[in-house]
Structures are given as C-alpha cells and as structure tokens.
Design brief:
single chain, Alpha-Beta Plaits, four-stranded antiparallel beta sheet
Length: 188
C-alpha cells in the first residue's frame, strides 16, 4: 500500500505552536516498547543497570557531545523508561525558513531525542545481532516544558526518588525477568 496522508498519519503530542529550540529546561520521559523492563532491575530502592541499561546510560551522557547546545541535568534510567532534564543553553543558528508543524527541526528537543533513541537502538541491535531494525522504544516521548524554579526542583526530586517509588509505580510489571524474552533477544 502506498503512502496516503489521510490514512498514514500519527497525531503529534508536541505543542503545535511551541518552538522546541527555545532555551530552557525540558523534563523528558522515554518509554521502552511495550514497557519491557530491559535496562535492569531495582534492588533495595536503587537501579541496577544491566548491559543494555549501561548502553542507554552512556549514550544519554553523550548527548551534549553531539548537541553542544544541550546540557544535561539529573536523569535516571529505570527498568522500562528514562526520566531526564535537558537544558537548551543557547539557541542554535538556523536558516530563516518558516517552521512547519511536524517537520523535524535540527537541534530541537524532538531531534535530540530521535537521535538518542536511534543510536541506542542501533547499538542494541548490533549487540543482539538483530537483522533489520528492531525498535527498543515506544513511539514518541513525553516532555514537560519547565517554567519556574520551584517546578524544576520538584521534578529533580521526582527523578532522583523514582527508583525508591518503583514498588508502587503502575509501570512496574512485577517480575521483569519473564519479560526479557518477550520481544527482544537480548543477552543479559
């Protein structure tokens, strides 16, 4: 079936008129596909990364190397999702073309997250000897544009304390080891 924009479209969850290249703090949440717990486990309130989780963590730490206008704040890799704050420290220079809703803008938060997700997926597929593209991630991501210091401090506390709350988290599927075999053939 050929592409038909009336059928093949996905509703964006980004704010339609917001410029995601603006300076400021962005609280990001990225979930794994089917909420699989592939990054490790929580033991006594602390996240214990497995090999795949270590890849996700190291690639997150490298975001600023690939996007110098992005600064990292607190983040946590959880068994099936990532929470982190990314700061756009300065607006990057770009051509004066009108922004089009849904079009990827170089250096924007959606561009940074897409690049991150792609790099992690590629590395995991390479390690697992997956043929073709086996996605690790849920489509899209969630963001909250921070607007004040109090909110930022509350978000930081939430991220830091997230592993302590895992037992009561509705995203906690229970025994994660049963899930490892569901969708990805990942050596743990």
């Amino acid at each position: 079936m050929s592409y038909n924009p009336q059928i093949h479209h996905r509703r964006s969850i980004r704010l339609k008129d917001y410029d995601y290249t603006q300076e400021g703090a962005y609280f990001i949440t990225i979930c794994t596909k089917h909420r699989q717990c592939i990054f490790g486990d929580i033991k006594q309130g602390q996240m214990k990364l497995n090999f795949i989780g270590t890849i996700a963590c190291e690639y997150w730490k490298e975001i600023s190397q690939h996007f110098p206008h992005i600064q990292l704040d607190v983040f946590v890799i959880m068994p099936n999702h990532i929470h982190g704050i990314l700061w756009i420290s300065h607006t990057i220079m770009r051509e004066n073309e009108p922004r089009k809703y849904g079009k990827m803008v170089a250096g924007s938060i959606p561009c940074v997250i897409r690049s991150y997700k792609s790099a992690v997926t590629k590395k995991i597929n390479e390690i697992c000897n997956q043929k073709g593209i086996s996605s690790v991630w849920q489509i899209n991501f969630y963001e909250h544009i921070n607007r004040n210091e109090q909110s930022l401090e509350e978000i930081r506390k939430y991220i830091i304390n997230n592993p302590l709350q895992w037992e009561n988290d509705h995203e906690n599927p229970g025994d994660i080891y049963e899930q490892h075999e569901l969708l990805l053939d990942i050596p743990f």
